[in-house]
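Quick one, C-alpha cells below. Sequence please?
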C-alpha cells in the first residue's frame, strides 16, 4: 500500500472502530475532506481499496451507503494503530462525540425499497433503538418513484407515525 492511501484507510478504520457501529458514507467523507486529509479523487480510490481489501463492508439503505469495519479491518487496525497520530485520533473522537446524535439517527431510522415479485415495489421502513427494532413496516407501492419518495419522507415523519401507532393501538 502507498503511504498516503494506507493512512486514509487507517483513519477510516479507526473511525468505524471507535463508532462501534456502521457510519453513513457521507459522514466519513465529510470528516476526511473537511479536515484536509484527502481530496475527493483520492477518497474514491481509498474507498475502492479498503473495500477490495476486505477491511470494510458496505450496505446500501435507500439512497445512503453505510460502512462497517470487518474482522480483517479490526486486525489491520490493531497491527497499524500506532501509525495514526494522537492528534488525528483526538480529532476523530471529537467528531464522533459532536455528531453522535446524527450518527445514531442515520442508523436508527432507515428506509429502503426493492422490486417486488408482483411487479411493483416494496418500501421497507424501520426504526431501531440500540439495535432493537421498534417498528418495521413494509408497504407495497405501484412505482419505483413512489417507493423512493416513501423512503425519503420516512426519515422526517417516522417519529410522528410511531407515536400515532402507539396511541391508536394501546
Amino acid at each position: 500500500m502507498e503511504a498516503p492511501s494506507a493512512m486514509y484507510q487507517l483513519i477510516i478504520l479507526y473511525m468505524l472502530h471507535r463508532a462501534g457501529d456502521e457510519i453513513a458514507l457521507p459522514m466519513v467523507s465529510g470528516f476526511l475532506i473537511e479536515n484536509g486529509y484527502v481530496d475527493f479523487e483520492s477518497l474514491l480510490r481509498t474507498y475502492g481499496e479498503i473495500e477490495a481489501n476486505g477491511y470494510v463492508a458496505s450496505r446500501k439503505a435507500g439512497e445512503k451507503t453505510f460502512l462497517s469495519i470487518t474482522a480483517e479491518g479490526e486486525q489491520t487496525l490493531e497491527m497499524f494503530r500506532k501509525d495514526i497520530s494522537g492528534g488525528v485520533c483526538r480529532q476523530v473522537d471529537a467528531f464522533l462525540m459532536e455528531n453522535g446524535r446524527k450518527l445514531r439517527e442515520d442508523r436508527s431510522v432507515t428506509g429502503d425499497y426493492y422490486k417486488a415479485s408482483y411487479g411493483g415495489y416494496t418500501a421497507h421502513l424501520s426504526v431501531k433503538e440500540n439495535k432493537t427494532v421498534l417498528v418495521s413496516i413494509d408497504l407495497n407501492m405501484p412505482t419505483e418513484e413512489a417507493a423512493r419518495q416513501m423512503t425519503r419522507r420516512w426519515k422526517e415523519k417516522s417519529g410522528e407515525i410511531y407515536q400515532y401507532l402507539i396511541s391508536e393501538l394501546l
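The chain is about 60% helix and 25% strand. The chain has a mean pLDDT of 87.
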